[in-house]
Amino acid sequence: MDEEAIMYLAMCGVAPLIAIAQLGQFGSGIYTYIIILLVGLLIGFLLIMTFADYVVFPLITGMLDITFQPYKNYKITRSQDAVVKNVNGLYYATGFVTANLFSYVFKAEKLEEDTELKRIEAPESWEKVIMSIPFSFKYHVLSVGLSVQTVRDELEGKRGYQEYQMSRALQSAKANDMVIADIQRKLNVIQARIDSIGKGEKPIASLMYIETTAVGVSEKQALDQLSAQVKQLQISMSAMDVQLLRVVGRELYTLFKFGFGLPTTYAQVATNFGVEK
Amino acid sequence: MLGFIAFFAASVFMVLIVSSIPTALLPSGFKILLLIIAFFIDAVAISTRFYSYLITPLIKQRKRHIVLSNEDAYWLSVSGDAILHREGEQYVATVYIKIPIYVSATEMTPEEKLEFTSQMAKLLSVGDTPTRYTTQIHIMNKDSYIDTLRNMMNSSENEEAKMMSSNASQKDLERVKGKVSMWHHIMDNASSTLSLEQVTYAAISSIGSKEFEAVSGVQQKAREAMSGISAVLGVTPSVMTGESILRFVEPEYLIPYSTVSEQISKSMREEVL
Lengths: 277, 273
Description:
With 277 residues, chain A is of the alpha+beta class. Chain A is built from 11 helices and 7 strands. Among the domains of chain A are: 80-146 and 203-272, no CATH class; 148-198. In chain A, strands 2, 3, 4, 5, 6 and 7 form a 6-stranded antiparallel beta sheet that branches. In chain A, a hairpin with a 6-residue loop joins β2 (74-76) and β3. Chain A starts with a helix and ends in a 5-residue tail after the last helix. Chain B has 3 domains: 2-61; 75-140 and 194-272, no CATH class; 143-192. Chain B has helices spanning 2-20, 28-61, 110-124, 143-165, 170-192, 211-233, 246-249, 251-254, 257-272, and strands at residues 65-67, 75-76, 83-87, 90-99, 131-139, 196-208, 238-239. Classes of the chains: A alpha+beta (277), B alpha+beta (273). Chains A and B meet through α1, α2, α3, α4 and β1 of A and α1, α2, β1, β3 and β4 of B.
């Protein structure tokens, strides 16, 4: 959870906290239980909005049948998982899927051994995936070059913290092998990244996603076809060890807008998405 | 942020007021009703963190179809090499750079494959500006080919109709019938399978308070990106101009109209039969 989320959650938590502190002022008996229930519901909503906002808004717009027109000729569906465009009576539905290729770039413990084989296999796997998909799609990688010194300092800070955790775990009377192995793995990952920067590899932050478009003579047909395409992508791309999740809500809107204008700074990318560094 | 502060302050203020009024003046039932409203405002406040773009128009328009913008999403720059998009008071210019990669993994040795993957990894770290690299698979545009086939088919059918009405010889009639059948057959073949095309490109944007400022900024960034791409991959990238940009932006260019409508009508015919 980032600082901004903590700030929003803390500020919005003030109102229910006041209500709990002043519980006696609202009446007694059944009223007390009603207030506690309301506070519980509000806190639940605040937590969902902080950790999984993509669940709530599509649910609300879906239930109330609310659609949006982001620009002329475009429509975001009520489930907020597709953008539809009507051209000459044909409906073009576009959806987005996250597609982070973790294993190729980010999560290697021993850079040389772990990634070399995968890097050799990658072009062929990619071609096989491409050939198995019989519809149009776009694989996007939005990358931003980062400052070498900043990233190095950040990684060294993280390594220091993990080393502290390791020394605590080793000194503890109830030293758990699983915990020690996990910390060691994290240390290896951080060290591998420091080593790769040391070898001259420039650190980047990246956001990877797939955009696919389906066509139909009605909106429903296009949306059904889109869902089928998303499923097909999830099956085909699984061979590449990719995490594939359908994008909904505000992220769909932002990715759709990326089609017409990209962010120009790293901060703009990081505001809307959890990027991989 | 202003919206959040307004909603947050309103909810806290309401809760404080409601809780400070004695029950003798305001019955508990009313207090709970007001508290529900205050909590609703609090819920709206946290929602503005990510959804202010929806909440404000939703409150203003109070309709089921909310119009966020009635304008076109983008327009082509005067220079023809960038698309422009308005974001608040700023203009965002975006350039598309085609990267011609014509290699296949099937023709590579393991060393070449490793080298190729490393090149791709290096490509991602070219420059400090956010750059989007895309591999696009789209349906090949066979619209003009299909239109030509349709014209040939129609003229052959007209020829056949004329011959039948003018009592032409059986030999000539058979020849024209064969021609019609041939065009039908070619048309069926052309529309029965979709031909896919792969293209790789990079997109890069720049903002400016004036259109020309954004465009000149992105042109500069594009030149830098192109020299980086060229150095890493050893290819000659080119900036896309005019209508060719639409292929990367508009969904109908991914799936061309005639190509697809022919296939849809064919599948519908098959379903009916």
